[in-house]
Design brief:
With 600 residues, the protein is α+β, with helices and mostly antiparallel strands. The chain has three domains: 203 residues, Phosphoenolpyruvate Carboxykinase, domain 1, CATH 3.40.449.10; 227 residues, Phosphoenolpyruvate Carboxykinase, domain 3 (Alpha-Beta Complex); 80 residues, Phosphoenolpyruvate Carboxykinase, domain 2, CATH 2.170.8.10.
């Protein structure tokens, strides 16, 4: 009997990497329990106090393997310009030769696990399948949380379904020639880390890192980098966005997606706790959204993941009670601190620091220690079903029709609290210019900015300017009435004393409330040079401690500062060497024209 293309591929990878054995992962609960127990025996995981944190574990990585490594992440398209200026590019055949050397015998003495996984509900037309082979049982356990792992995926692939091949190795073979000087509980090869994506063949190869962002290849690698390429070719969008469903006091449901760069409150917003009577907020996803047009001309969102891979530091009952509730059980923590009673702790979890901890490196820690107890990028990996604000239908196969799309960065100046785009093209312009201020405004009126268009800077798998063109094309494919409205938000505006003006957190629902009223035609808004902002009295500010001057400053549009910003946008567009779509150049010119006509 001839072997299937899938089995042939697995055999070829095994022949290259030379594992001691090959195991096909089934995704069954008993298998997950066995994997976790094995990780505890190997000391990769520490079992936490079962009374305080049931079925939960702590992993400590090698200190050299603690985060995504963007400078070692590559998009290997046939043409360099297809990768664009924001991606690292290497000619595909050169990279293949290098990978062949790296992976040759790299799994010797280890088990090669074959993980058939689905991003999205298996039966959904928006789902996409992948196969990850890995020699890391930590990856197996984490993929079981973050994706739908099932033998049914293997059956679908063998029946002819499209799939993404993904190969991962920690890069530390166990053989007589290897002294294995790396951390035995966390094998890695940090000097040789590579995370590689081949555009035309839609392959992923990752070597040397066990950290989730580099090794859970269904997440950023497939769901965004390869996913964005699939979306470009197939007419949909793979986005670094949360998905939330908001029920208004009138009982009507609205679906929001939102793209925020890191440190801009994306997970907190996804799990927003309402403070206005009659509202309900449900968490569909906190990190990735796949958006596709449906037969009704609407844009439909699914969350391709099945878990949260969140940053721990700063997460607390005050900042995100729903996340704290979600991680009380069935959670894999990485690089947080261990308490004396077998629980976890990190900076920001409690106001008072414990008297003694074991820090993320495995060393004794006290409040007098000069280093943090938890790594700043320490994580929790937990099933989405643990979240009390996640509805039972979060993974329905038909997805959710999107009513509004939000973009936001961390801006101390210029960008108002909330602005509605004048059109789809204007909304894409907003998304293309998302930025966060890295330093105080020392060399000009708008400070130094880090551009992160659509919050996709590290994740877009092809030329970013061509990606903006694709957004415009998808907008054209939607019906005018069904096209989501686009808004820009900024929770981080500061006053002249450097203090945040807007209280944020639950009060962000007041912005959501105004957006819903705009969608329903209940408020008119006010036209400004940068878009439509709330008119006087439209924003519900009951019980908000906000002065009239503060409110005015939240929506102040300084002509001089904005003209300088527009010039910076033009300079930024020039870095894309003619790929910026004409519609966005037109939006920039229209913005400059409106600013020139505005009162100083």
């Amino acid at each position: 009997m001839s072997r299937s293309p899938l089995q042939t591929w697995v055999d070829n990878i095994a022949q290259l990497t030379q594992p001691e054995r090959v195991v096909w992962v089934t995704g069954e609960a008993a298998e997950q329990r066995e994997i976790l127990a094995g990780l505890v025996r190997e000391k990769t995981l520490i079992a936490l106090n079962s009374e305080l944190r049931p079925n939960s574990f702590l992993a400590r990585t090698d200190p050299r393997d603690v985060a995504r490594v963007e400078e070692r992440t590559f998009i290997c398209s046939e043409k360099r310009e297809d990768a664009g200026p924001t991606n690292n590019w290497v000619e595909p055949e050169l990279m293949r030769a290098e990978l062949k050397t790296l992976f040759d015998g790299c799994m010797a003495g280890r088990t090669m696990y074959v993980i058939p996984f689905s991003m999205g509900p298996i039966d959904s037309p928006q789902a996409r399948f992948g196969i990850e082979v890995t020699d890391s049982p930590y990856v197996v356990a984490s993929m079981a949380v973050m994706t739908t792992v099932s033998t049914k995926v293997k059956e679908c692939i063998e029946a002819g379904a499209e799939w993404v091949p993904a190969v991962h190795s920690v890069g530390v073979p166990l053989n007589e020639d290897n002294a294995w000087t790396t951390n035995r509980a966390w094998p890695c090869n940090p000097e040789k880390i590579k995370v590689v994506h081949f555009s035309e063949t839609r392959e992923i190869w990752s070597f040397g890192s066990g950290y989730g962002g580099n090794s859970l290849l269904g997440k950023k690698a497939m769901a965004l980098r390869i996913g964005s390429i699939q979306g470009r070719d197939q007419g949909w969008l793979a986005e670094h966005m949360l998905i939330m469903r908001v029920t208004s006091p009138a009982g009507k449901k609205f679906t929001f997606t939102a793209a925020f760069p890191s440190a801009c409150g994306k997970t907190n917003f996804a799990m927003l706790m309402p403070n206005l009577e009659g509202y309900k907020v449900e968490t569909i996803g906190d990190d990735i959204a796949w958006l596709a047009p449906n037969a009704n001309g609407r844009l439909v969102a699914i969350n391709p993941e099945t878990g949260f891979f969140g940053v721990a530091p700063g997460t607390s009952v005050k900042t995100n009670k729903n996340a704290i509730d979600a991680i009380r059980s069935n959670t894999i923590f990485t690089n947080v601190a261990l308490t004396d009673d077998g629980d976890v702790w990190w900076e920001g979890l409690t106001d008072e620091k414990p008297d003694h901890l074991i820090d993320w490196r495995g060393n004794d820690w006290t409040p007098e220690s000069e280093t943090p107890a938890a790594h700043p990028n320490s994580r929790f990996c937990v099933p989405i079903s643990n979240c009390l604000t996640t509805p039972d239908d979060w993974n329905r196969t038909e997805g959710f029709e999107v009513d509004a799309i939000l973009f936001g960065g961390r801006r101390a100046t210029n960008v108002p609290l909330v602005t509605q785009a004048n059109s789809w093209a204007h909304g894409v312009f907003m998304g293309s210019t998302i930025s966060s201020e890295q330093t105080a405004a020392a060399e000009g009126p708008v400070g130094v900015l880090r551009r992160d268009p659509f919050a996709m800077l590290p994740f877009c798998g092809y030329n970013m300017a061509d990606y903006w063109s694709h957004w415009l094309e998808v907008g054209e494919s939607l019906s005018e009435a069904g096209r989501p409205q686009i808004f820009q938000v900024n929770w981080f505006r500061k006053d002249s004393n450097g203090k945040f003006i807007w209280p944020g957190f639950s009060d962000n629902l007041r912005v959501v409330d105004w957006i819903i009223k705009r969608l329903e035609g209940e408020v008119s808004g006010r036209e400004s040079a940068v878009g439509i902002v709330p008119a006087d009295g439209e924003l519900n500010l009951t019980d908000v401690q906000l002065s009239e001057d503060g409110l005015k400053e939240l929506f102040d549009i300084n002509k001089t500062s904005w003209l300088a910003e527009a010039e910076m946008i033009g300079d930024y567009y020039e870095t894309f060497d003619g790929h910026v779509p004409g519609a966005l150049d037109s939006e920039l010119k229209a913005l400059q024209s409106r600013l020139q006509g505005a009162a100083a």
